[in-house]
Specification:
The complex is a heterodimer of chains A (173) and B (603).
Chain A: E1 10-19, H1 24-35, E2 41-48, E3 53-62, H2 64-76, E4 80-85, H3 86-89, E5 92-103, H4 106-118, E6 122-126, E7 130-137, H5 139-149, E8 154-159, E9 163-166
Antiparallel strand pairs in A: 1-3, 1-4, 2-3, 5-7, 5-8, 5-9, 6-7
Chain B: E1 21-23, H1 24-34, E2 39-42, H2 49-56, E3 62-65, H3 69-83, E4 87-91, H4 95-109, E5 114-120, H5 136-140, E6 146-149, H6 153-168, E7 174-180, H7 181-185, E8 187-189, H8 209-221, E9 225-229, H9 231-236, H10 238-251, E10 255-257, E11 272-275, H11 282-290, E12 293-297, H12 303-306, E13 317-322, E14 336-339, H13 342-355, H14 362-376, H15 392-402, E15 408-412, H16 416-424, E16 433-434, H17 445-455, E17 460-466, H18 467-470, H19 476-482, E18 488-493, H20 498-507, H21 523-530, E19 533-537, H22 540-552, E20 558-563, H23 597-600
Parallel strand pairs in B: 2-3, 2-4, 4-5, 5-7, 6-7, 9-10, 9-12, 10-11, 12-13, 13-14, 15-16, 15-17, 17-18, 18-20, 19-20
Antiparallel strand pairs in B: 1-8
Classes of the chains: A alpha+beta (173), B alpha/beta (603).
Chain lengths: 173, 603
């Protein structure tokens, strides 16, 4: 009689508020590897020095039952203060920053600059042969930008991983 | 919103406050005393010498010297499981810590509260591959509930009190505190348990009343209900067992139990259907399969219990009470999840039941019991008796009957004997049955029995063992002799790793790969060599006399070598990968054709 939840893989963004103590990231990462959950992206940084709090954003793709498990399992960790599944709690924003090094000359160099301009990417370094662009956007926007700029001499990419926050006036902690 | 974080003793020391400092090792001993610890199981070594020095200078805490660190953790588990208190372990760095890992993993899976102190090389040597150094917190992270590396003596007392809180609160489990040797020798500030509250770890124990009310509604409307009870009831405390008994009597509903929950509901009660699962009773498993309302109280839908998930109790509404939210909807999706202490939940269910003046549907229940009694009439635990050879089931029946009326604590190793013990020894009280259910650790039973005996001097403590399992921690005989512990080791000796042999016989074409122990010791002489008593029973006629002799030993351990039928298999059995209603009752049924290919990969 129990209705089984449909088993469709979904991508969810989790915010995890943790005590900034030794080994806490290892606990979170170990939980994912030990239980076979997938990590698409992970970022972590201290957000409150005074109270010693760090915020981890994890993007994971899984079926709903596993996503529910991920939230429950994260909550079980002793230094975890709060877990919020941003994707299922309401409208949210996610951003990722990429730095892209493009080596080209002539037409390609001009086209690279033009594309960067269209995407509102910032040029943060330039030589006569190269540019470094800084670009922030959603995961998908970065993918699009990378795709367009690749044939124009892209030689190196670094991405920050996704950070996310719920829309509206309420704070999650 | 997060709760405001209480400021915990974080203010810096002012000149006005006189803080007397004691060194880390003394802090540890004082903290244990303040936590009410009376017994520590351990083994000394270089990195814990200061702590052993502190133990030497006091008399409040008794140290039990085991023979291998793994034994210390199992002993602490036995102590904890039989008392409801936290078990405490003290071992050295490196191999001391790694030897403890199995016990920690065992305590994690069975939710046993244990605090394990490990020595560590001095802070300045950490990371240098020093002598007897290992990354203890790294190694134990996935097999503990939580762990700590304490680098500051001022934080030691608080960490210890926190660790006890974490170990015993919510779903209990093992906690490791790794203490570098220099911290043990550095003066630090002592704080008492009352001064410490954990800043974040405050597990939810009160269930939502709304969910309880919906659950009671469902329970009252049930036509074919069953209580599926687990180890959570034991962990919740004796009051939870009392509440379960009361609620079961009020409703008149059948009760089954997991391996870990045995004793929470009296086995001698007619409403008890016996254990469920792979080697559970026919009536329990068929009732689970056929029920319309399943009331899971403190169990976790373990794979040994559910069998094939897609065919698990297909037509029931399910209520699941668990203190660990991650256990809910993990493998089985339930209709009414209730997060909280199972004892509190049952109490609230009783209150709602009484308040709403519910009563069971008598006609439907009578029909359900008639069906259950039909299943019971199969007598699924029946076995072929023999006058010439001891059947393992018979040995346990005699053990049960001859210990009747004597308060008895049973521990087990892992394998066939464990399942037979669960089936044939009847437990009427909680905390009297200690077994490695989740991890399935061979070698658990003897050290666990030592822990139980220390907690319950003068009581009858029996480790039901197999001859293969007992050899995994046989060194603990020496511990038992040292402390004059009259633990009884009742070996069902069939010369095989029985459960391995059974699976090889049933689903691997009788290819008995490495499951026979070709050179077993003489267990009678072995017992004597350790300074214990050794007895042997070779025929059914000798058995009663040997058991009586065993029970009369009261000042040292006693090994009983019961030579049992080596061909006997453990039935009934759900073939791996099959559903509850596909049980096999005895060897007359072919099991290999019943085991699907996907079952072969399951353990």
């Amino acid at each position: 009689m129990t209705d089984q939840i449909p088993q469709v893989i979904q991508r969810h963004v989790f915010s995890v508020i943790v005590d900034d103590e030794a080994g806490v990231l290892a606990r979170v990462v170990g939980l994912f590897s030990g239980r076979g959950y997938n990590i698409d992206s992970l970022t972590v940084a201290n957000v409150n020095k005074e109270q010693g709090i760090s915020r981890i954003t994890i993007v994971s793709s899984a079926v709903p039952q596993i996503l529910e498990q991920i939230e429950a399992q994260l909550n079980r960790l002793v230094p975890v203060r709060k877990v919020v599944d941003l994707t299922s709690t309401g409208p949210m924003l996610e951003r990722e920053t990429a730095l892209l090094k493009v080596n080209s000359t002539g037409e390609k160099r001009i086209e690279a600059l033009r594309i960067a301009d269209v995407f509102h990417a910032k040029t943060i370094d330039a030589t006569l042969q190269s540019f470094i662009f800084e670009f922030s956007g959603t995961n998908e926007e970065i993918n699009n930008f990378v795709e367009l700029i690749t044939p124009l001499g892209l030689i190196e990419v670094v991405r920050s991983g996704v950070v996310g926050i719920a829309r509206g006036s309420k704070a999650i902690f | 919103m997060l709760q405001p974080i209480p400021k915990v003793q974080d203010e810096p020391h002012t000149d006005k406050r006189v803080v007397s400092k004691i060194n880390g090792a003394d802090i540890l001993v004082k903290a244990l005393r303040d936590q009410g610890v009376d017994t520590v199981f351990g083994y000394p070594g270089g990195a814990v010498l200061p702590i052993y020095d502190a133990i030497f200078k006091q008399n409040d805490i008794r140290h039990i010297l085991v023979r291998q660190e793994g034994g210390a953790v199992h002993a602490a588990e036995g102590y904890a499981r039989s008392t409801g208190k936290v078990g405490v372990v003290l071992v050295t760095s490196g191999p001391g810590a790694t030897n403890a890992v199995t016990g920690l993993a065992d305590a994690l899976l069975d939710s046993i509260p244990v605090v394990c102190f490990t020595g560590q090389v001095p802070t300045h040597l950490i990371g240098n591959d020093a002598f007897q150094e290992c990354d203890t917190t790294g190694i134990t992270r996935p097999c503990t509930k939580h762990n700590y590396l304490v680098k500051d003596a001022d934080k030691l007392a608080r960490t210890i009190h926190e660790a006890f809180h974490v170990a015993r609160s919510g779903r209990p489990g093992p906690v490791v505190i790794d203490i570098p040797k220099d911290v043990q020798l550095t003066p630090g500030e002592y704080v008492s348990p009352a001064q410490v509250t954990h800043k974040t770890y405050q597990p939810k124990t009160m269930p939502e009343l709304d969910a309880i009310e919906r659950a009671v509604e469902l329970i009252a409307d049930a036509q074919r209900p069953i209580f599926y009870t687990g180890g959570g009831i034991i962990n919740s405390g004796s009051k939870a067992s009392e509440s379960l008994r009361k609620f079961a009597r009020m409703t008149g509903y059948p009760v089954t139990s997991t391996l870990m929950g045995l004793g929470a509901y009296p086995a001698s009660d007619p409403q008890f259907l016996g254990m469920l699962g792979m080697h559970g009773t026919y009536e329990a498993n068929l009732a689970m399969h056929g029920c319309d309302v399943m009331i899971n109280l403190g169990a976790r839908f373990d794979d040994r219990v559910t069998g094939k998930l897609s065919e698990f109790s297909p037509n029931s509404k399910k209520i699941h009470v668990d203190i660990d939210a991650s256990s809910i909807n993990k493998t089985i999706v339930v209709d009414i999840p209730i997060v909280g202490d199972v004892g509190v939940a049952i109490e609230q269910m009783i209150k709602v039941w009484e308040k709403k003046k519910h009563s069971a549907n008598k006609a439907a229940l009578a029909k359900w019991w008639a069906q259950i009694n039909e299943w019971r009439a199969k007598k699924c635990l029946a076995y072929k008796k023999s006058d010439t050879i001891i059947k393992p089931q018979y040995a346990l029946e005699r053990l049960r009957d001859l210990t009747k009326g004597v308060e008895t604590f049973i521990t087990t190793e892992v394998g066939q004997h464990q399942m037979w013990a669960a089936q044939f020894l009847h437990f009427d009280e909680p905390n009297h049955w200690m077994t490695s259910g989740g991890l399935g650790t061979m070698g658990y039973g003897l050290p666990a029995a030592i822990g139980v005996q220390l907690a319950h001097p003068g009581k009858l403590v029996i480790d039901v063992a197999g001859e293969a399992s007992i050899l995994m921690n046989i060194q603990e005989m020496s511990t038992a002799v040292q402390y004059r512990l009259p633990v009884k080791i009742f070996i069902l000796n069939n010369q095989w790793m029985g459960m391995v042999r059974q699976w090889q016989e049933l689903i691997h074409g009788g290819r008995y790969s490495e499951s026979y122990t070709a050179a077993l010791p003489d267990f009678v002489k072995l017992a004597e060599a350790f300074g214990g008593v050794g007895l042997r029973a070779k025929t059914p006629a000798e058995l009663d006399g040997v058991i009586k002799q065993m029970m009369a030993v009261n000042d040292r351990p006693c090994i009983v070598d019961v030579c049992v039928d080596e061909k006997e298999n453990c039935y009934p059995m759900i073939p791996s990968g099959r559903a509850h209603n596909e049980m096999i009752l005895n060897s007359d049924q072919d099991i290999s054709s019943k085991t699907p290919d996907e079952g072969l990969v399951l353990v």
